Amino acid sequence: MFLRFAATLLSTLAALPVAAACVGESYLDRMSDAQRSELSAAVADMPYAEGLIWTAAKDDATITVVGTMHIFDERLEKLRAQLTETVTNADLIILEATPEEEAKLQELLVSEPDRLFIVDGPTLPELLDEDTWQMIAAAATERGIPSFMAAKMQPWYLSLTLAIPTCAMADMMAGVRGLDHMIIQDAEAAGIPMQAVEPYTTLFDIFKDDSFDEQVDMLRVGMLVPDLQEQMFVAMLDRYFAEDVGRLWEMSRIAVSDVPDLDPAEGEAMFAEMEEALLNERNRNWIPVIAEAAATNNDIVVAVGAAHLIGDEGVLQLLENEGWTLTREAVQ
Fold first, then answer.
1. Helices (H), the chain
2. Which of 4, 79, 103, 305 has the smallest CB count inside 10 Å?
């Protein structure tokens, strides 16, 4: 479950007809008073808890740091319009993945299908009890994934896929993408060079350390809270467009305590482990890459998932630690 929440935070939401369907009860509305107090305390002193666009300045170099959503929502068009001039006048755009990395990833999946699929041995229906498999098969079918295909997915990959609510899946399957890909389109149109901030195999490397049994357990637990997942999605959209990213992340941490039959201490430990792997470690690895690019380019745009911006281990604080001066830009 911790992985599903973290994955949802790092790959959020949908297009116009889909976004209209991704409405309903927000997780923020169902939180207890104690949870609300815990949430407020968690973000009270968090560095860079708010804001989606920041300017970092040092010597003669300028970096525009943008917190993105990886899946489309119509409200992203305003952010895109605000950033277009900055993007098209930049010397370099740095992203989590450029079209070149995406092409390499597709080639890898063709040559090494076992990265995502079970190619030998028992498939998921043989590894899970019947009731759990039927829940998973139904969830996959609702997202347009045939059950025979879901049966052969690596459990971690299927968990990531099922982390996307049904209301958001149609446009994702149709290839409609989020703010990072809007930035890519504008950079390509203007002939601005792009660079990835990390190898395209990074997420595979993160998930490969979990044993197959651990992945199956994660998938099984994730089926226990479909309503909570939908409520989280609604709340995360609300907080992203309010530029309230720190609250968005800490809300997800608190939500783990609402997963039935999951020991709170175990859930917190799981979340902390995933936070370190998905955010903190990657953030630390990115800073030298950004610094090296800034040494030879005066005007850079760094566009990464919004959760990477916040906190003591966030990109913004790490840049400040390196002597960069940060200024928040108002979102129009």
1. 2-9, 16-21, 27-30, 33-44, 76-88, 99-111, 124-127, 130-142, 147-150, 155-162, 166-173, 179-190, 202-207, 212-222, 226-241, 245-255, 264-275, 281-296, 315-321
2. 103
